[in-house]
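Propose amino acids for all 205 sites.
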């Protein structure tokens, strides 16, 4: 190892040792936006210390290492930002998809409710129509029965009148016949009386 590289190696070892506790804590912390932000801050601080050490020691290797670490931190930050944006877009798209699913579900429910209401209205109208038809048929049947009853009653009354007229006619005929017979009997009696009187006068002569 050249004497020129000894300060660089020492500085690198010191910096690595200094960040070990922080790396251990961040490793246990897992993943997440806050953890990534802390790691980037630690990487930038590491790069800043390396740049400072390179400037103090006049070590171009430390300076280049610091620049590489700065660029790497910038790239990681940019990648994290892009991931965050993609994640936000994905979440927004998922939210919009969920909203569309909910809207479609609401529309299906509303359509089902409207269809059910139309079915109920149609059933109600069918029952009302059936009830009205039943009432109409009942009224017509009652009217027909009433008319038939009135017709039968009129026919019965007519038959009674005709029967009475026939009886009256027979009675009158019998009365006339009886009158004629009585007149005939009276005429015969008068004739017999006249004949008896005539015979009596002859006997007296």
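Proposal:
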């Amino acid at each position: 190892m050249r004497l020129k590289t000894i300060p660089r190696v020492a500085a690198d070892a010191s910096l690595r040792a200094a960040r070990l506790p922080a790396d251990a804590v961040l490793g246990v912390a897992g993943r997440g936006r806050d953890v990534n932000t802390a790691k980037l801050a630690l990487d930038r601080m590491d790069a800043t210390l390396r740049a400072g050490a390179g400037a103090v020691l006049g070590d171009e290797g430390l300076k280049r290492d610091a620049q590489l670490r700065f660029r790497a931190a910038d790239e990681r930050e940019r990648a994290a930002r892009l991931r965050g944006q993609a994640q936000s877009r994905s979440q927004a798209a998922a939210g919009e998809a969920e909203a569309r699913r909910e809207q479609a579900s609401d529309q299906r429910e509303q359509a089902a409710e409207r269809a059910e209401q139309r079915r109920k209205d149609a059933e109600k109208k069918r029952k009302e129509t059936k009830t009205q038809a039943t009432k109409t048929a009942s009224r017509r049947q009652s009217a027909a029965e009433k008319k038939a009853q009135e017709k039968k009653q009129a026919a019965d009354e007519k038959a009674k009148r005709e029967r009475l007229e026939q009886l009256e006619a027979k009675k009158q005929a019998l009365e006339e016949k009886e009158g004629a017979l009585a007149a005939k009997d009276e005429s015969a009696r008068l004739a017999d009386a006249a004949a008896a009187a005539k015979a009596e006068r002859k006997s007296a002569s």
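The CA atoms of residues 45 and 70 lie 9 Å apart. The two ends are 220 Å apart (CA to CA).
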